[in-house]
Design goal:
It is a single chain. With 366 residues, this protein is α+β, with helices and mostly antiparallel strands. It folds into three domains: 109 residues, no CATH class; 64 residues, Orthogonal Bundle (Helix Hairpins); 149 residues, Heat Shock Protein 90 (2-Layer Sandwich), CATH 3.30.565.10. The chain is 61% helix and 13% strand. It is built from nine helices and seven strands. The strands form two sheets. A five-stranded mixed beta sheet has the order 2-4-5-7-6. The protein has a two-stranded antiparallel ribbon with strand order 1-3. Helix 1 packs antiparallel against helix 4, helix 4 runs antiparallel to helix 5 and helix 5 packs parallel to helix 9. The relative contact order is 0.07.
């Protein structure tokens, strides 16, 4: 676009010069014709002065001087509006650089080259401001990530150090109490490991380059495998998963481990927040070229105010960050990142009766 604008500007300059040359030449010729026509009607002393100058300088020098003067005058007159618009363009770019530019205050240009150049500069400015805003958000996000990680890691670390200090100082009554201390340390260590793994997975998905091994995956088979793998946790919670599939196969292209992580997170979330109920419903169907998987639990309703934030990192509906319900606070954020990575989307709807997470993924074009 900028090359086209420069080409138009060059043509405009050439046209301006040609017009000034023709106008100055034509007007100079008319002036001389007028002077030579009227010289005979001038008073004797004025005619004598004219012929004296004519004999002294000749015809070329006066003609040239008048032509140059008229050429400069026409250049200034013809380029005035064009140069004023260029000045307005320069002022608008200066305002863009100082963040004082408002679209409503954008100057209107009558010359197409200035309009194109102005639009191009505005586009570059918008992209630069967008990049700077994105960079600020990234820095703020990383700072927030560090703050939340420090908070969440400190809690299990404090417990581990506390119990290890008791063990190191032999501050236990008997072997039963010692085993209790070591059991607590072990549980806290496992939780710490899960948090570190979740954090690593989230940062790799959002700030790095995820290592993907894409292949053709049948979502129906994947869900059935996950149902079997999670049987111990489901059995412990006294729950069961019912799979309702309207089709025999749902083939998509994805990394099997990443996709399994999506539905494992959703199922474990349903186990945690659906305790006290008996079932988790899985529904698999198609809509056009999309696969739709619904994961429904029948636990308490998620408040309306919480729904827009539920996929944010470290966000939890329960604010206590309790171990019994809350994990690392990254599970749903990781789930959304993986779904987004494959061009899908995830939504949640919660009522007093049920909470449903809907995952939509593109099917393979067959």
């Amino acid at each position: 676009m900028i090359n086209n604008s420069l080409s138009v500007i060059q043509k405009r300059l050439v046209t301006l010069i040609i017009n000034a040359v023709l106008l100055a030449g034509g007007l100079t010729f008319l002036l001389f014709q007028l002077i030579y026509t009227m010289v005979d009607y001038l008073p004797f002393y004025m005619a004598s002065i004219f012929y004296f100058i004519h004999d002294l300088l000749g015809q070329v020098i006066p003609f040239t001087l008048i032509y140059i003067a008229l050429f400069l005058v026409f250049i200034l007159l013809l380029s005035r509006k064009w140069s004023l618009e260029f000045q307005r363009l320069q002022e608008s770019t200066d305002r863009m650089m100082t963040d004082q530019f408002d679209d409503q205050d954008a100057p209107k240009f009558s010359y197409p080259e200035w309009r194109k150049l102005s639009d191009h500069i505005k586009q570059v400015s918008d992209q630069l401001q967008s990049a700077m805003a994105e960079e600020r958000r990234a820095v703020e996000g990383k700072n927030e990530l560090i703050t939340n990680v420090s908070h969440d890691l400190r809690t299990p670390l404090t417990s581990i150090i506390g119990y290890m200090r008791l063990i190191e100082g032999d501050q236990y009554i008997d072997e039963v109490e010692l085993r209790y201390y070591t059991s607590v340390v072990y549980d806290k260590s496992l939780r710490l490991e899960r948090m570190v793994n979740d954090l690593f997975e989230y940062t790799r998905l959002n700030f790095g380059y995820p290592n993907l091994n894409d292949d053709e995956i049948d979502l129906i088979q994947l869900l059935m495998q996950l149902k079997s793998q999670l049987h111990p946790q489901l059995n412990e919670a006294g729950m069961d998963v019912h799979l309702y599939n309207q089709v025999d196969q749902l083939i998509i292209t994805a990394d099997g481990d990443k996709l399994a992580r999506v539905f494992e997170n959703l199922l474990m979330n349903a186990v945690k927040y659906g305790k006290g109920t008996k079932t988790i419903d899985l529904s698999a169907q198609t809509r056009g070229h999309e696969a739709i998987i619904d994961v429904t639990n029948y636990g308490p309703k998620i408040p309306e105010a919480e729904l827009p934030h539920i996929f944010e990192r470290f966000y939890r509906v329960e604010k206590s960050r309790a171990v019994e319900t809350g994990g690392s606070g990254l599970g749903l954020a990781i789930t959304k990142s993986i779904v987004d990575l494959y061009g899908g989307h995830i939504d949640v709807v919660s009522t007093h009766h049920a909470t449903t997470f809907k995952v939509v993924l593109p099917l393979i074009n067959q």
